Amino acid sequence: MSSSPPVEALLLRAGCGTESPLSGIAGLQPRTTHVLSGYNGTIFAYGQTGSGKTFTITGGAERYSDRGIIPRTLSYLFQQFQKDSTKVYTTHISYLEIYNECGYDLLDPRHEAARLEDLQKVSIMEDPEQNIHLKNLSSQQAANEEEALNLLFLGDTNRMIAETPMNQASTRSHCIFTIHVSGREPGSATVRHSKLHLVDLAGSERVGKTGVGGQLLTEAKYINLSLHYLEQVIIALSEKNRSHIPYRNSMMTSVLRDSLGGNCMTTMIATLSVEKRNIDESISTCRFAQRVALIKNEAVLNEELDPGLMIIRLKREILALKDELVMVTGEQRTDQLTEDELQK
Ligand SMILES: Nc1ncnc2c1ncn2[C@@H]1O[C@H](COP(=O)(O)OP(=O)(O)OP(=O)(O)O)[C@@H](O)[C@H]1O
């Protein structure tokens, strides 16, 4: 078990892009490296609308140097896979969108042509150990960086984007891009599974300030409500002696349960607007980051024996032992069950 790393909070200002997010911002490269070693990681961007969350997480479309944390992480991971000849790695990608409190699979091939209401919704299921499982969310294998980037582009074209008074291309949903990595040494039945969530939260906005109506207002209400529930979870986690953490209030907090207070190494990126008229929002983002930095997670190494490989190994062992027995006793044993055994 790792030594309970605190959730990190990093500050970024819109207009102050970094050339290389992974090496330029302390905390991001370690998160990615830990994923290679079997630990879960999350990097999430939080800030008011238009402050640069999508630019930071996904990147700008115009220049290669503007690419964000997701493409840089994919590049880094696949480079590391190639360098490490001691392990065999498998990568799967899923891309979840939470829009107006409903989950959608951004990698669903029907997404582009179908109406939103006709798409299958992603739903949450909880097992007896309180682990969250997402029904109807696909997980697609990516054999190399190019395939992974194609999945990112496919998902990004399906995202809910709208022009708002505060941002020309505002993302109206929370998006969680997850890279699932499995690594094992050739011939070994021990597998390390880890996942890295790269999260672009929808931005809070003061609807009174911008005077939006109709669909934009409905979206803004859902966004603000879910960010309010996120804040409640963060407040509960940062206070000592709180036994109940209200994860179940929203889909986003349920999905990010582990990232916010469980088996995960988490980094929060707070994005701020440089404009003076947004000073109140910037202060509130900083306060939120301060609370997040108080949370301590318990990240554990996700290592298990692959049941399929274990069965193959045990069958082989049984065969070898049977051969040995035949040599020692000279008696040929039969696999047939006796009448007594069949009646049990
Ligand atoms: N570091 C940066 N360098 C250059 N342009 C930037 C930077 N950060 C943000 N921008 C630009 O500012 C605008 C708003 O950024 P972005 O869409 O990333 O904000 P956001 O926080 O995701 O907003 P929303 O919550 O509304 O989706 C975009 O046009 C983006 O290209």
From TrEMBL:
<dbReference type="InterPro" id="IPR027417">
    <property type="entry name" value="P-loop_NTPase"/>
</dbReference>
<dbReference type="InterPro" id="IPR036961">
    <property type="entry name" value="Kinesin_motor_dom_sf"/>
</dbReference>
<dbReference type="InterPro" id="IPR001752">
    <property type="entry name" value="Kinesin_motor_dom"/>
</dbReference>
<dbReference type="InterPro" id="IPR027640">
    <property type="entry name" value="Kinesin-like_fam"/>
</dbReference>
<keyword id="KW-0505">Motor protein</keyword>
<dbReference type="InterPro" id="IPR019821">
    <property type="entry name" value="Kinesin_motor_CS"/>
</dbReference>
<dbReference type="GO" id="GO:0008017">
    <property type="term" value="F:microtubule binding"/>
</dbReference>
<dbReference type="Pfam" id="PF00225">
    <property type="entry name" value="Kinesin"/>
</dbReference>
<keyword id="KW-0963">Cytoplasm</keyword>
<dbReference type="GO" id="GO:0005874">
    <property type="term" value="C:microtubule"/>
</dbReference>
<comment type="similarity">
    <text>Belongs to the TRAFAC class myosin-kinesin ATPase superfamily. Kinesin family.</text>
</comment>
<feature type="domain" description="Kinesin motor">
    <location>
        <begin position="1"/>
        <end position="295"/>
    </location>
</feature>
<keyword id="KW-0067">ATP-binding</keyword>
<dbReference type="GO" id="GO:0007018">
    <property type="term" value="P:microtubule-based movement"/>
</dbReference>
<dbReference type="GO" id="GO:0003777">
    <property type="term" value="F:microtubule motor activity"/>
</dbReference>
<keyword id="KW-0206">Cytoskeleton</keyword>
<keyword id="KW-0493">Microtubule</keyword>
<dbReference type="GO" id="GO:0005524">
    <property type="term" value="F:ATP binding"/>
</dbReference>
<feature type="binding site">
    <location>
        <begin position="47"/>
        <end position="54"/>
    </location>
    <ligand>
        <name>ATP</name>
    </ligand>
</feature>
<keyword id="KW-0547">Nucleotide-binding</keyword>
<protein>
    <recommendedName>
        <fullName>Kinesin-like protein</fullName>
    </recommendedName>
</protein>
